[in-house]
């Protein structure tokens, strides 16, 4: 790594400029602090692939070292990190790893639509204690749609599928519009990648396929009392409705792309599948989440050729090794305009996720950009601007947050 003294201004920007976390999730309540295996901090795997295999990755070994340093553990191991955090009072643990004087996070944009959040995770306002600007919400559209269908089924006024479909459309449009007008909501998110894939059709030939899906959804709901929308024609319809409302109200729509747990179909998680839909909705801003890894170059192409596409470089911290993270950022910068890259932690459940998501991103950006400056391809001043935009100004503008960077964020406790 290039010595700090050579590029002190770049080092200062990378490690001390305030940040807007453009995509994160709630933290578990104290009562449920051990609800999920901590290995989920460093891997999207499930079952033994998570609890047995993930601790042998370079990503885990690096996390152990970094968390051990904060927890003041000598010769730390994964087990010693778990033991040390278990000894800390939960408020102290959260403050240690999430407070803005540790992370530099000024504002969090929170997707609070994860399943069960209302039962075992903190509500979005709770997270304000760790930032100097208020937390804002990202609304997950598929969950809104599921809740509407549950409500329609509980109090049915008709069993006619067409009438139910019309009622659903009216209620969903109203709900999304209300969210778009809510000062606490700054954007929407789709999990189409998890449910039916990113090959969202830009338009439907007719409503017949959608109605057939709806009949299947309602049949399952009637038989089991549960609902999980994974019916392509109907899911695509929901996404299209969200894109229309979002475009009208200038609210970005985030899409999970690439890296995820084993519920996704990897071959349908590339953002390249969204190309036709991106072209069909030029007034709606698309945010491709999670660096679209391992399809980062495809995402970079889309940001380069479509004015309404942005790329988030999150979740790879800490799920990917340090060298992998640097390689991904280099791929992001191959094509992506630097005014269209957005940083996030994808923090969730555990306070440590916010810390690792921040410190590793700061380290990776400094390593990559200092190399670029050394090669003579960019001045240090230009690199500083890239960092400041990536961490703060690009998200501030895209989500219309109206914030000014809190330059003293690391100095106040």
How does this model look, in words?
- The chain is α/β, with parallel strands linked by helices and 413 residues long.
- The protein has a single domain (4-398), classed as Metal-dependent hydrolases (TIM Barrel).
- 50% of the residues lie in helices and 9% in strands.
- It contains 18 helices and eight strands.
- It has helices spanning 8-16, 48-53, 58-70, 78-87, 90-98, 100-103, 117-120, 141-154, 161-181, 192-195, 208-224, 232-249, 275-280, 296-305, 316-319, 322-335, 351-374, 380-398, and strands at 19-24, 105-111, 136-140, 185-190, 253-255, 286-288, 309-313, 341-343.
- An eight-stranded parallel beta sheet has the order 1-2-3-4-5-6-7-8.
- Helix 1 runs parallel beside helix 18, helix 8 (141-154) packs across helix 9 and helix 9 (161-181) packs parallel to helix 12.
- InterPro entries: Amidohydro-rel, Metal_Hydrolase.
- GO terms for molecular function: hydrolase activity.
- Residues 243-367 form the Amidohydrolase-related domain.
- This is Amidohydrolase 2.
């Amino acid at each position: 790594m290039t010595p700090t003294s050579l590029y002190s201004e770049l080092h200062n920007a990378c490690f001390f400029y305030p940040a807007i976390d453009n995509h994160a999730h709630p933290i578990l309540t104290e009562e449920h602090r051990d609800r999920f295996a901590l290995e989920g901090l460093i891997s999207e795997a499930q079952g033994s692939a998570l609890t047995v295999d993930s601790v042998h990755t370079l990503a885990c070994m690096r996390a152990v070292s970094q968390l051990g340093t904060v927890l003041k553990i000598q010769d730390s191991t994964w087990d010693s990190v778990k033991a040390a955090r278990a000894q800390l009072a939960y408020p102290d643990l959260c403050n240690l790893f999430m407070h803005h004087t540790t992370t530099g996070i000024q504002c969090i944009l929170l997707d609070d639509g994860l399943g069960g959040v209302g039962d075992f995770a903190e509500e979005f306002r709770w997270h304000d204690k760790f930032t100097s600007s208020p937390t804002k919400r990202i609304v997950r559209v598929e969950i809104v749609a599921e809740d509407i269908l549950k409500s329609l089924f509980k109090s049915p006024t008709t069993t006619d599928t067409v009438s139910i479909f019309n009622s659903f459309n009216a209620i969903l449009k109203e709900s999304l519009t209300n969210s778009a007008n809510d000062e606490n909501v700054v954007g929407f998110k789709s999990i189409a990648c998890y449910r039916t894939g990113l090959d969202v059709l830009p338009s439907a030939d007719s409503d017949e396929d959608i109605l057939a899906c709806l009949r299947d959804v309602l049949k399952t709901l009637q038989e089991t009392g549960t609902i999980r929308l994974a019916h392509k024609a109907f899911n695509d319809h929901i996404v299209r409705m969200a894109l229309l409302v979002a475009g009208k109200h200038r609210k970005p729509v985030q899409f999970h792309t690439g890296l995820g747990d084993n519920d996704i179909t990897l071959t349908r998680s590339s953002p390249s599948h969204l190309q036709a839909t991106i072209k069909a909705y030029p007034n709606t801003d698309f945010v491709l989440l999670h660096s679209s890894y391992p399809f980062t170059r495809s995402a970079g192409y889309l940001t380069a050729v479509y004015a309404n596409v942005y790329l988030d470089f999150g979740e790879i911290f800490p799920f990917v090794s340090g060298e992998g993270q640097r390689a991904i950022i280099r791929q992001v910068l191959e094509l992506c305009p630097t005014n269209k890259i957005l940083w996030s932690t994808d923090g969730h459940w555990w306070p440590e996720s916010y810390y690792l998501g921040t410190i590793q991103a700061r380290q990776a950006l400094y390593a990559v950009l200092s190399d670029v400056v050394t090669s003579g391809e960019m001045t240090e001043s230009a690199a500083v601007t890239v960092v400041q935009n990536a961490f703060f100004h690009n998200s501030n503008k895209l989500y219309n947050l109206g914030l000014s960077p809190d330059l003293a964020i690391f100095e106040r406790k």
